[in-house]
Amino acid sequence: MEKGKISIDNTGFLRLLLTKIKREDLLEKLDNFEKYGSERLETAFEVICDNLGKQWKMFARKIGVSDARLDQIQDRHPCDMREQIRQVLKTWQKVQGNDANAAELIRKLRDCRLNLVADTVDEQLRTMQN
After folding, report:
1. How far apart are CA 124 and CA 41, in angstroms?
2. 12-46, pLDDT tens digit by residue?
3. Is the pLDDT of residue 126 over 70?
């Protein structure tokens, strides 16, 4: 953890180690933990879709979605900003793969000075833990 190879949102290295030592029981627990992580990400998506608003393009660029992809998303969903935001998040998730996590979305929201949305996501995720 100190070297940053294992964290709540980065379990790949741990999975590799558990596989090497043939600890199927712990791999099953890790699977359950990762499922919880995907639920956290889906919750973050919902909160962002509900609260982001007109600054969605700035946020999309911050998370690395290209202008060409933004144009495609807008063309496919011209009158539905919520769906445009969801498609941006899905695009980001696809590019990030296993590295996609709610904590990174919160950081990017804060980088865009969208602190209210970031706080709302963070609060909702904390509610999930209880």
Report:
1. 11
2. 888 898 999 999 999 888 877 776 667 888 999 99
3. yes
> What CATH class does 38-129 carry?
mainly alpha
Distance CA 40, CA 42 (A): 5
pTM for this predicted structure: 0.73
Tokens 């627990």, residue?
29
DSSP conformation class of 10:
B
What are the helix (H) ranges across the chain? 12-20, 24-51, 56-62, 67-76, 81-96, 102-111, 115-129
Q: Is 7 helix (H, G, I), strand (E, B) or coil?
A: strand
For the chain, give every domain's residue range. Answer: 38-129
Residues facing residue 7 across a β-bridge: 10
| C-alpha–C-alpha distance, residues 6 and 58, integer Å | 30
